[in-house]
Amino acid sequence: MVEKQTTQGRLAQFMLKEPSMYNVIMHNDDITTMDFVVMILQKVFRKTEEDAVALMQKVHFEGMGVAGTYYKDIADSKAKYAMRMARERQFPFLLTVEEA
Predict the structure, then answer these.
(1) Domains plus CATH for the chain?
(2) pTM of the model
(3) DSSP structure string for 69-85
(4) Which residues pair with 95 in a beta bridge?
(5) Which has more pLDDT, 17 or 88?
(6) Whole-number Å distance between alpha carbons of 97 and 4
(7) What is the reported pLDDT for 70?
């Protein structure tokens, strides 16, 4: 709890809340190459090669997986950046962002 002096000289109490976290969800498709997905996971989501391959396989076999969990602005930026890279290569790669 934070106290702050108001313009009338009274103390007001404010409850500060941590910002919500958001998952970047990677969805499987039959066109985007596995190599591209691994590269995105390494470059955009900072995964090791081993972790990127494991997550790529999880998405391939289960249909979706969490690429990372971030604050809303960061999650949106990473998803848009990765999908822009995919569109440049004409892949239908899909990432969605949802509250964790």
Answers:
(1) 19-99 (3.30.1390.10)
(2) 0.83
(3) EEEHHHHHHHHHHHHHH
(4) 26
(5) 88
(6) 35
(7) 98
